Amino acid sequence: MAAVSLSVSTVKPLGDRIFVKVSESEERTAGGILLPDNAREKPQVGEVTAVGPGKLTEDGKRQPMDVKVGDKVLYSKYAGTEVKLAGEDYVLLSEKDILAIVG
Amino acid sequence: MAAVSLSVSTVKPLGDRIFVKVSESEERTAGGILLPDNAREKPQVGEVTAVGPGKLTEDGKRQPMDVKVGDKVLYSKYAGTEVKLAGEDYVLLSEKDILAIVG
Amino acid sequence: MAAVSLSVSTVKPLGDRIFVKVSESEERTAGGILLPDNAREKPQVGEVTAVGPGKLTEDGKRQPMDVKVGDKVLYSKYAGTEVKLAGEDYVLLSEKDILAIVG
Amino acid sequence: MAAVSLSVSTVKPLGDRIFVKVSESEERTAGGILLPDNAREKPQVGEVTAVGPGKLTEDGKRQPMDVKVGDKVLYSKYAGTEVKLAGEDYVLLSEKDILAIVG
Amino acid sequence: MAAVSLSVSTVKPLGDRIFVKVSESEERTAGGILLPDNAREKPQVGEVTAVGPGKLTEDGKRQPMDVKVGDKVLYSKYAGTEVKLAGEDYVLLSEKDILAIVG
Amino acid sequence: MAAVSLSVSTVKPLGDRIFVKVSESEERTAGGILLPDNAREKPQVGEVTAVGPGKLTEDGKRQPMDVKVGDKVLYSKYAGTEVKLAGEDYVLLSEKDILAIVG
Amino acid sequence: MAAVSLSVSTVKPLGDRIFVKVSESEERTAGGILLPDNAREKPQVGEVTAVGPGKLTEDGKRQPMDVKVGDKVLYSKYAGTEVKLAGEDYVLLSEKDILAIVG
Predict the structure, then answer these.
(1) CATH number of the domain where residue D62 is located
(2) Per the structure, how many domains does chain D have?
(3) pLDDT at C30
(4) What is the rounded CA–CA span in Å between residue B28 and residue B31?
(5) How many Å apart are CA A72 and CA E71, to the nearest integer?
(6) pLDDT at A2 over 70
(7) D49 vs E85, which has greater pLDDT?
(8) Considering only CB atoms, which chain B residues are within 8 Å of A66?
(9) What's the pLDDT at G40?
(10) Is the ipTM reported for this complex over the cut 0.85?
(11) Range of the domain at E59
């Protein structure tokens, strides 16, 4: 069996999942967001790279997604599944794990 | 990758989430609210800074939000995600974590 | 940031929440209710001070509330969020935590 | 604040709750029900004193109650909230905690 | 308060509950069912004595019951509430705890 | 009380339950299925002996069953209730515990 | 009882289940996906071999499946049931355990 060769452009999230490139930690950026060490649910900033088609409802429709490719998002650091691709950190999240669009 | 620069005005909560500026503790303000130390679920006062578009229902509509920007709200201290922005404390909450509008 | 000044009349509960003034303990009032020390879920008596607009249903309607301002209610002592206001004890409850109207 | 004076007739259960007067233990009544000590969920006998208006459904209707005042009922000893009123034991139960009508 | 006198014929299960007379253990009946000691969820055989009117659906109808008085049923030994009546063992079960009709 | 005499043909599963005859373990059958010892959820092969009428939906219809008598099925070894009948091993499963039809 | 002989082509997943051939681990493939050892929920790559007919909704319809035979998929390593068939590793997953299509 040949090894599967993956690249960022081939990742298509299913349902309401979102593929996010993790932003560098910026704990003390002037005027920027500060994520307190003792936060109950530590938030993280990232940029949306790919967006699923939306959750399928009982009557066969798709729920529209509220984020789009390019959005900067704030999400819980403990949510989703981490993936490393070509040396960069990515995370696959459900849209409900996105707290806010921040840019 | 450039660091993401955030400011309060760029934070757009998703779904039924609310962005709240945490009010200073006012444990013994005369005539004001007193939050007992031994309270089971310690409440906290804050001011609403941004409000999400509302939760998406199964049939694709938005549930209206009961709070608006500028409302003073009482919420559980143990709910939501803390965020520090330009030296001030904020919290991202779901509307269900808001107990009451208090001003 | 100025301290938020709160008074009882400004507290507007959200959804199906109810703002209740806790009645004095009356463990042995003649003919009155007696709350056994070994009760599994200790009930408490209070008076309704403010009532939320009702829970929002999926189709955007409000479920009517079964209690009104002035009702004496019995509720579980371990439910809700305690708040002290101008020296008096209050509690914010969901209507489902109200066991019965008792006067 | 005046003490709240309660009597049995003033107790109006909310929703699908039921106010039950606990029957005396009758562990070995001839021909009567015997509640085994090692029962997983110990049942108890009582008499219905007041019945709530029924659970409110999503479309604003009341679900009819299957028990009425005067029914003897069997319920789980570990369900509900105990209340003592004028020296007698009562319990506030949800209808789902009622196992059977027994007389 | 007079003791409540109960007999099998007076037991009317509520909702989807079923009143079952527990059959004697028959661990090694030839050709009969054998209940392994190491079974994850030990099944038990009994005979249906009384059947509730069925679970009430959201729109006020009763779901029909799949068992009737006289059916021999197989149920999980760890489900329901045990009751002893006139020296015999009974159990109050929800229909969902009935695994199969066996005679 | 006479002992209940059971035979395979009398077992009628309720709802979406399925009565399955457990197949002999075949850990290393050439070309056959191999169930790894360290599997998280150990699968098991069996043959469907009896099928329930289907789960009752809220509006009183039966959901059709996807397996039929005679199907070879793969199911989780930790699901359902084991029953021994005339020296053979059977298991009562919910259809959701069936992973796949394998023959 | 004859041993059940299984082959890949006979495996028909039920409902929303998917039969996936596990891809070889490729921890450091150049340009390929890298699965961090300390990932919270370790993802795994595989190829879809068979797809169930879709989940049955309450009104008797099938929800369409978002993956098809031949898709390369990313799924949580801790989801589903492992099966070994003719020396190869397979896994039976629910579609919700599929994070993304990756090729």
Answers:
(1) 2.30.33.40
(2) 1
(3) 42
(4) 8
(5) 63
(6) no
(7) D49
(8) 14-15, 53, 56
(9) 46
(10) no
(11) 12-101
More confident residue, C59 or E56: E56
Of A34, A39, A72, the CB nearest to B81: A39
Residue C103 at interface with chain B, using a CB cutoff of 8 Å: no
Cβ distance D101 to E12 less than 8 Å, yes or no, reads: yes
Which residue of G lies nearest to A84 if distances are taken between CA atoms? G34
Q: Does any domain span residue C63?
A: yes
The predicted model gives G84-97 an average pLDDT of 89
End-to-end CA distance of chain C: 43
Judging contacts by C-beta atoms under 8 Å, the chain G residues touching residue A83 are 33-35, 39, 43, 74
D-E Cβ pairs (cutoff 8 Å, strict): 96
Do F86 and F41 meet the contact criterion of CB atoms below 8 Å apart? no
Q: Quick check: A78 and A44 in contact, CB under 8 A?
A: no
The chains found to touch B (3+ Cβ pairs under 8 angstroms) are A, C
Chains D and E touch (3+ CB pairs under 8 A): yes
pLDDT at G65: 95
pLDDT at res. F25: 59
Assess F31–G contact: CB distance below 8 Å, yes or no: yes
Give me F78's structure tokens.
Answer: 């930790």
CA distance C2 to chain B (A): 8
User: What's the burial of A89, exposed, middle or buried (CB within 10 Å: 0-12/13-18/19+)?
Assistant: middle
Strands (E) in D52-97, as ranges, are 72-76, 81-85, 88-94
Average the pLDDT over each of B18-32, C53-67, G50-64 and give the range with the smallest value: B18-32
- Give me the pLDDT at residue A35, please: 52
